[in-house]
Design goal:
- The protein has two domains: 142 residues, Alpha Horseshoe (Leucine-rich Repeat Variant); 109 residues.
- It contains 17 helices and no strands.
- 42% of the residues are buried.
Length: 277
Amino acid sequence: MGPGPRRKNSMTLRTLWDQEFIRQDTSSAMLNFLSPYRTEHAGTIPAAMKDRAIKLLHHKYSDQAQSLFAIACDLCHSRNHIGEEIGVMLLPATYTIDPQAVHQMLEILVDSSHWEVREWAASAAGHILSDHYDDFHATLIRWLADPSANLRRGAIMAIKVGSNKLPSAHVAYLLDVLQPLLADRDPYVKKNLGPYVLGDGLIKSHPDLVLPRLRAWVELPDETSRWNVAMVFTAQAGAKHGSDASSILNILATDTRPSVIKALAKAKNAIAKYQQQ
């Protein structure tokens, strides 16, 4: 039994959309085609549509890396959020053509005023970190110390994305350079580091490296550092290791500062929920 009429219509529309998009030969033509699909919520097109456009461009220029890089550059410099998001995700595949140019484009887009552009740019930076660690990690480390909270946050998000494929030695080094960010009080950095980058990322892919660091970091006297350590265990991947973290939780329990007390309560609640599953 074949697909029903509704699915056939959906498949036909997608094929027609693909064909029409592929016919757009310039970055400006692509953006003109995509702009009517812009949503009010984000001011850009839906993520699935961006992913589809990226996939189609990779396929169209599969044996034309220079052409793909040229389109990526045009889109990254378009000052159009749709173009910036699609263009930045073409950079990992074309990185070796001009690494320095890629670094410059990434830095601009990771520091964008548009939150969704920053998300896509940080993701692209993560893919480049995993595939070109030797060439890119110095740029990432510079971002970690930048006055811009956008760049610092983009760097830690890139580490989350890129760490899955990195060897332990590289991840250990990245944990070293992340340590100063534990005390970063900027809300944009803080709310992402402990609960997300560490709790939902690095502890999931490298628990053998992260847990010993947490046991060391909990000894840091700084309030924000301890808050970050506690918040690691509020994420499901972090809560999974709650039974291995009794010494960490015991030290946190002696801290009388309100933010640490609240973070520890959240961590204990998440651990209890995980253990009840």
